Amino acid sequence: MANIAVARIKREFKEVVKSEEVAKCHIKVELVDDSFTSLRGEILGPPDTPYEGGTFILDIRIPETYPFNPPKVQFLTKIWHPNISSVTGAICLDILKDQWAAAMTLRTVLLSLQALLAAPEPDDPQDAVVARQYKETSDIFSQTARHWASNYASAPHREPVMDDKVAQLKNMGFDEHKARVALSTHNWDIEQAMENILS
Amino acid sequence: MATENIEDAKAQMGYDPTTNYDEATMAQQRQIEQEIAGCQPLIGKETDLKTLHDEYSPEDKIYQDKITDLQRKHSAYRRIRMDGNCFYRGFGFGYMEKLLKDKSELQRFKEVVTTSKDEMIKLGFPSFTIEDFHSNFIEVLEKLEKDCGVDELLEIFNDQGYSDYLVVYLRLLVSGHLQKNDDFFMNFIEGGRSVKEFCAQEVEPMGKESDHIHITALTAITGVPVCIEYMDRSEGHGVTTLVFPDDKTPVLTLLYKPGHYDLLY
After folding, report:
1. Scanning every residue of chain B, which has its alpha carbon at the shortest distance from the alpha carbon of A103?
2. B257: how many CB neighbours lie within 10 A of its CB?
3. CATH class of A3-118
């Protein structure tokens, strides 16, 4: 069994490496060690989305039963997205669960994740807080997602007002990430965010 | 307020936001699968049909009568592991077992499989993986050409990786046939889904069970007519026999019990 998984990953590795998307630097896969069961993926945030130009790193684990069962994938780069946990990076995507098929590959997974960044599915959320913000106040959602992408994924577009608010809380002695989470969760209301951190 | 209630409820259930519950669920499924694998081979030994009587209570008149009826036409059966792939695996093994004794049918089938690859790539399946599953399938057919015996075939089908590769290709054949004829099959799909969506949800993933639509597609694309003996709790003393397609003579017979297929002789 394990041999099938490793042989398949070795072949897929070559497939991704020589694919067109790689040439355009849109997706990438790297080995973490020489085992072929633990990989590092990378996707570029798609254009016309809050994630545009950001580099998102993924942890990919290949189960022994691959390709009959899906790879385990999660975001290592912190991201604000309805279908990705802002806490753990866990992903809610059908093909990584019960709709995985053995004919799919790592390339399919990375391209599907890129598509997920461009088209969130708030009715099947992984992060309920983000999903609610996406549905109720989509402007604030977009700005928040862009703010996270610029701070964690080196995306070029900044959100200066949000950067300032985080800096304010940071200057008051709060942990930067905690401040960002609290502000993001409370629609950037500084008082509510502080109350939340202190409670 | 509403959110606080949800948070309270989560806390009471021991909800931990840092745990990935989907992964925990999948891990548990894997564990259950492994436990089943430990006590049941993918394809069992050929067993006298009489033993099927012992599986049901003597007072279970409906099933006892139906097994007796089954014995009028069949003498033995092979148990297939209950993993949601039983239809494909049972079909694959049962048919290839016949091919061992029918070289001209083997050539016809090899031709079908050979042309299927390009058809599927034309339909938009990823050539990278299709080729992988296709070449593995052809490899097994070549073993049949070289007169491998039933024992070797049984060994192939009981090797989880090898066996699953064959199941995947049969699933792809079904998906390809449904998508190629979506004008027709869309009439039989429930839930407002497209044929492509249906295939992604109910055909291509491993472990998804098979219904009439899957059977119709597999028998049509392979050109292998199949008889299914339905044994369920419905009234009557006999099993219900259906042949797919109904105007052909079946090459092999499967026994259907709700949610599962075994192979009949």
Report:
1. B129
2. 17
3. alpha beta
CATH 1.20.1300.20 boundaries in chain B: 80-224
Is the distance from CB of A134 to CB of A122 less than 8 angstroms?
A: yes
What is the identity of the amino acid at A77?
A: T
Report ipTM (2 d.p.): 0.82
Work out whether the CA dihedral B136, B137, B140, B145 comes out positive or negative.
negative
Q: Are A88 and B160 within 8 A, CB to CB?
A: no
Is B39 catalytic? The answer is no
Query: Are B22 and A104 an interchain contact pair (Cβ–Cβ within 8 Å)?
Result: no
pLDDT for the residue numbered B73: 94
- Judged against a pLDDT cut of 60, whether residue A1 lies above it is answered with no
From its phi and psi, is residue A144 left (phi > 0), alpha (psi between -120 and 50) or beta?
Answer: alpha
Residue whose token pair is 């949000």:
A162
At B10, is the pLDDT very low, low, confident or very high (cuts 50, 70, 90)?
A: low
> Residue B70's closest CA among B206, B246, B245, B253?
B253
| Three-class DSSP category at A165 | helix
Look at A105 and B128 and tell me if their CB atoms are within 8 Å. Answer: yes
Closest CA to A12 of A34, A33, A36, A35: A36
Q: Which candidate from B26, B164, B172 shows the least CB-CB separation from A103?
A: B172
B30-67 pLDDT tens trace: 777 777 766 789 999 999 999 999 988 999 989 999 99
* Nearest partner of A184 among A82, A114, A106, judged by Cα: A82
Q: Does residue B145 carry a pLDDT above 70?
A: yes
Top-confidence range, B7-11, B91-95, B238-242 = B91-95
**Residue boundaries of the structural domains of chain A:** 3-118, 128-198
CATH topology of domain B50-79+225-264: Phosphorylase Kinase; domain 1 (3.30.200)
Backbone angles phi and psi of B255, in degrees to 5: -100, 125
Query: Which CA distances in Å does A181 have to A87, A130, A189?
Result: 9, 11, 12
